[in-house]
Amino acid sequence: MGGRRNLRPPDPLDTSLSLGDTFSSQLPAMLRTGILNPAVLSLLARVRHTNTLVIADRGFPFWPQIETIDLSLVDDVPMVAQVLDAILPAVSIGRVFAAEEFRAHNLPARIEALQTRLGATTLHFEPHLDFKRRVPSAIGLIRTGDTTPYANLILESA
Predict the structure, then answer these.
(1) Cα(55)–Cα(28) distance, integer angstroms
(2) Which one from 49, 105, 124, 128 is the annotated catalytic residue?
């Protein structure tokens, strides 16, 4: 009938099961779309109402008390904007915080691109020191290879 799959482990006393019938054969083989990184998926699954998540550039300080997923490979791979693009369809964001220094050190086109990405989501700019004061209460931090000055974002779930 094409309905829901029964994802319970097989009953070891059920004699109708063949040797090839296993619980794992009932699960999809692998993710094919959206976020593929299991650590990022796990982190996103733990974000609840009004929790925050940091997407950081390559130079952002290390915070030992916060779970950090380091996606950086080389300069600008990946960029904060790319991680944001991957995350936005998967979560509900109420507000985004950025350092006001981002506006001072980047071209207007980059700022407009960020605001366009966020759509109706409110973007708050604040001094970088105030921004960093929010970090210790975040659920986690995703580090990128972004070299854009002050590209860091804090996403607050709706």
Answers:
(1) 29
(2) 49
